[in-house]
Structures are given as C-alpha cells and as structure tokens.
Write a structure and sequence with these properties.
- This protein is of the alpha/beta class and 579 residues long.
- An eight-stranded parallel beta barrel has the order 21-22-25-26-27-28-29-35, surrounded by five helices.
- The chain folds into three domains: 112 residues, 2-Layer Sandwich (Copper Amine Oxidase, Chain A, domain 1), CATH 3.30.457.10; 74 residues, SH3 type barrels, CATH 2.30.30; 262 residues, TIM Barrel.
- It is 28% helix and 32% strand.
- It is elongated and about 130 Å long.
Length: 579
C-alpha cells in the first residue's frame, strides 16, 4: 500500500511538473522577442536607401562638406539609366525631358541647355570611382534626398510616388525584422518621439495583419497593423508627358510626308490638290564629315510655301549613311555630338522650322546607346525652341545596322513621334517592298516597345522593279529601278503586263516578259495606301509617315485625306471596303 501511494505521488508530481513546464513554455511562446538588433550593422560605410529598398553596391555614397555624391554606377543602375560618361573628355551628361546638363570632373562650371551655371560641388573622381553631386541634380531627377549623419544613411525618394504615412499608436509598438513577434526588434519608440517626425512611418506593403514600413531614418521592418494609425496619403507631383509643338497639329491622324528636295517640284503641291498632308519633312540636313559638319540644303521659300498652305515643316537630319565608322566617331564624342546639335538648333531657328526629324541609319550595334544619348541630348533643346522631335527607326527583326541599332523603346520614351520605316521588306532580295501582312506583323512587334499615341506607320509610295533570267542553268535576279506610281503603271501598260490583286499583300503583283527576262513588280499605289492606312485606325496610332512625295501621284492624297482625316475608326473603314 505504501509503495502504491509513493508511486501515485510520483505520478502526480511528474504531471504537475509537466503542467508547470508546459505553462512556462506556453508563456514563453507568447512572450515577444525583446532582442534589439542594428539594422545597418552589416553594411559598411554610408548606407543608401532608395524608395522601398536598401541599395548595397561596391562603392557607398560619398559625403563631402555635407553634400551627397553617389557613384556614377549607382546613379546609372538605380536612378538614371541614360546618364552618360565621356571618359576621354571627363564629362558627365544628364538628360531629362526638358534639360541637358553637362558637367566636367573637378570643375564648377556646368551647362544647362547651353546656359552656363556654377556648381557648388562638381563631379569628382576618387580612387578610380566617379561620384556625381546629387544635391545639384535632385530637381532635374525629380527626387528628394535626405542625409541622416547620426545613422550614416542617405535616403532617396522619387517625387512621382504615392505614399501612405502612418505612425505608432504607442511607445509599446516596435518594428521587427519579420512578420512575427518572435523576430528581433530593429526600432523602438519613446513617448517623446510619438507625434513627431521621428515617428513617421512610410508604408510600402500590406499583409493580413502586418505592414512593411520604412522609418524616418531609413530602417525597414514590419509592424502589426493594430499598432499603427494611418494619418495621411501623400501624392507627390507626377511627371507630365512632354509633347509640345510649335503650333497645334490638325485634328485626326497626322500625316508626315518626306520630301527628297532636289528640285522645286514641291511648288506643284497645294492644300487643294494634295489633301491629307500635315507635315513636310524635307531632306535638308546631312552630316558630311567626321567633324560633324552639316550640309545645309534648306530653302526659306519652301518654309514660306508650306506655312502658307497650313503645313508644318520638320527638317530631316541624316547621318552619312555610307560612313558607318564616321557616324561611330561622332556619336561617341561629347564634343562632336554637341557640335552637331548646335548646328541643328541654329538652322531650325534660322529657317523657322516647326520640328526636326532624325534619320540616322547604318549604325554599328555597339553604338546603339550612343545614338540614344544623342537623341536624349538634342530633344530637350529642340523642345526649348518650341520644336517637335521625331525619329525614324527600323522595324523589329531587321538587320543589325538598320534595325537593331535603334533602341525603339528608349527612343519612344524620349521623342514626340517615332516614324516606323515599314518598307524595304525584301531588300536587297527581290520581292515586295511592304506586304500588308508583313507591315502589320512588324507594327504589332513595335507596339511592344512604343506606345501607339507616338507611333507613325511608314507608308511607301515607290515600286521596285526586279528582273529574273536564267544564266548558265541558274536563275539570276537583279534590281533595275525604283518607280513612281505613274511610272509603275506606265510599265504595266507599255508591256501588257499580267496584274493580279493580292488581298493578303494589299497590293498588285505585275509580271511581264522582256528581252528574255521576267520582270516583276509589287505595286505601291492608292489601293495599297488604302490597305495600309487602315492599320493606323486598327491599332489607334498617331498617324502615318510617307516615303516619299517624289513617288506620288494625285490619286494617293485623297486616300490619305479620307482614311486619316474623315474616317474615325477601323470599323468605319472596313464598312466602306465591304460596300
């Protein structure tokens, strides 16, 4: 009996001990972690916070005389992918929608849109790293910068952001490293801090019962929703879309017509005889040497004629198509780019132009970014003069020197209009210049890079003449000529050619035999224009761009007028075709 009592007592003691231990561990499990850890302890040097992230790069920010300088590589990666460094000339170039800033390392003299300005602190190079003065650039980048010397933290916020601002409800609230009360604490608050700026929390993410927040001094962590009061939503100023013009463009889809200006044939055009035209882009300006000298073919009489007809003039500026190395030299030199830009600005003012159309072709793929930089440098200065900026680009999937060297996405973000050169589909091989299906396919691919409100669809008016013949048992093809619309149909009539309309190609295919050869044409005429311009409405584009007036006849302009000005949507065009 006694042994039995001892055993029962032992069991009771064990059970009681288990209950006590269980209760103890249950209390421990409910007890919040009180360990406080340093959030930035593992990050050496001055720390950098941009928006919702801590940025850790090889080189930290530099603080000089209380001013913040960021490494060039950090700025390029996290703030401005287009900032440019010309190592040979030791110059930094920053471009925004309406400003071009040029700074030289170690010098307080800077240029903003060609106007001199003195810096309080210049770009500097230390231990092989280039540092950029951010206090000077913050307004151009539309960012706010705050340096917290006690914590050694630089905080950068973009002004075009929306923030929810909160604060802890009490001094019992803490910020933790994770969404659990068992996670360590990274920030505690005192009663004195509550209600002050020091207690301000920016809320970035919201979870079921937690917020991810950033404290005033740049510490990131998590806080229970129940411990936070939301007191404000800050919507900071947002960037506006810069699409200025010297004078308003007409209603409807716009139509830019390139003009190979080698004669006074332009005088034959008028608003009455040539409707459906909004802008003339004459081939006036061309870089002719490796110093960036521009050959000027501009004609004041031309501008007066266009303006009297209610048309705008966007002068075309081309590189030297046949000197790819010379183009490379110019694009990669800050001074040579600047020389070209100065000349264009001067000519645009001299001839009272309404816009500039940039047409740089045959560029090395390695110079893709350099060309984008050139466009970014000239665009704000042109806009400052009230000019529209447009650029001609190759289609996606083209050759390296004619298509891949154009960064359509970056250019589309920079200029007012992108002119898509949807032609020369088969060049230099025989075939159509621009089959409808191919044009639409390339257009759809481009819309992944350029917004439709900035895109002009290229419409060719020329017809290429091809010949096929058998030589030594092999079929040989050769290119003969580029024909005008009237010239192409004259060939058809003179040679009694077989002509077939191909709906999928949106053009007539003509063939005839002559001198032992088969002659082929894919004719670009008013009917082909009708088919292609329908895509402008189908994809709600800004309009069309036409190469070139020199190949046209009077039949095409009423088609442009009807399809771009009178028809308001694709279904309306389609109904007309069916009728």
């Amino acid at each position: 009996m006694r042994r039995r009592l001892v055993n029962l007592l032992s069991i009771y003691l064990v059970v009681a001990l288990c209950l006590i231990l269980g209760y103890y561990f249950w209390l421990k499990a409910k007890e919040p972690n009180s360990q406080v850890v340093g959030f930035f302890d593992d990050i050496p040097g001055t720390r950098l916070v941009i928006g919702s992230e801590v940025i850790v790069e090889e080189e930290p920010p530099l603080i000089r005389e209380g001013r913040v300088l960021l490494p060039f590589a950090t700025v390029k990666k996290h703030i401005d992918p287009y900032i440019w460094w010309d190592e040979a000339q030791q110059k930094v170039i920053v471009t925004t929608k309406d400003r071009v800033i040029r700074m030289e390392t170690g010098k307080l003299d800077a240029l903003i849109n060609e106007e001199p300005m003195e810096l309080q602190f210049p770009p500097v190079e230390e231990d092989g790293t280039l540092y950029i003065p951010m206090d000077f650039l913050k307004d151009f980048y539309r960012i706010n910068i705050r340096y917290m010397p006690e914590q050694g933290v630089v905080i950068v916020d973009h002004r075009n952001s929306i923030y929810r601002i909160g604060e802890p409800l009490s001094a019992e609230a803490v910020i933790r490293t994770g969404m659990s009360i068992k996670e360590p604490i990274v920030r505690e608050y005192s009663e004195a801090e509550l209600g002050s700026q020091a207690a301000e929390l920016i809320i970035f993410e919201e979870y079921e019962s937690w917020y991810r927040v950033r404290t005033y001094e740049g510490i990131f962590g998590y806080i229970p929703k129940a411990d936070v009061v939301i007191r404000d939503i800050i919507i900071t100023e947002r960037d506006t879309d810069f699409n200025s013009t010297s004078s308003p463009l007409p209603a409807g889809k716009i139509n830019l017509v390139w003009d190979m200006t080698y004669s006074k044939k332009y005088m034959e055009f008028s608003r009455e005889k040539s409707p459906g035209i909004d802008i003339w882009s004459p081939t006036w300006f061309e870089i002719i040497d490796r110093e960036g000298t521009i050959k000027n073919r501009a004609n004041p009489e031309y501008v007066e004629w266009a303006h009297n007809n209610g048309w705008q003039v966007w002068g075309l500026v081309a590189n030297a198509f046949n000197d790819i190395e010379g183009t490379s030299i110019i694009l990669n030199s800050t001074e040579l780019r600047h020389n070209v830009i100065r000349q264009i600005l001067a000519y645009a003012a001299l001839y009272d132009l309404d816009g500039i159309n940039l047409d740089f072709e045959n560029i090395y793929l390695k110079d893709r970014d350099a060309y984008t930089q050139f466009v970014r440098e000239i665009s704000p200065l042109l806009r400052e003069q009230g000019l529209v900026v447009s650029v001609a680009v190759g289609v996606p999937g083209g050759s390296e020197t004619w298509s891949l060297s154009h960064d359509r996405r970056a250019l589309g973000e920079t200029v007012d209009y992108v002119c898509l050169m949807t032609y020369d589909q088969n060049w230099p091989s025989p075939g159509s210049s621009a089959e409808l299906e191919w044009v639409e396919d390339r257009l759809v691919a481009t819309l992944e890079e350029v917004t439709p409100d900035r895109l002009l669809l290229g419409i060719p008016l020329y017809t290429r003449l091809w010949a096929e013949e058998e030589v030594d048992g092999k079929m040989k093809t050769s290119y003969l000529a580029a024909l005008t619309i009237d010239g192409a149909w004259k060939r058809v009539e003179e040679n009694d050619a077989t002509v077939v309309w191909n709906p999928s190609q949106g053009q007539y295919h003509a063939t005839y035999e002559k001198d032992g050869r088969t002659i082929k044409m894919w004719i670009e005429d008013a009917d082909a224009v009708n088919a292609k311009t329908s895509l402008v409405h189908k994809y709600n584009l800004a309009g069309a761009c036409v190469w070139a007036a020199n190949f046209a006849n009077e039949s095409v302009w009423p088609v442009f007028e009807r399809n771009l000005k009178q028809i308001s949507h694709y279904e309306e065009w389609n109904a007309l075709v069916v009728d």
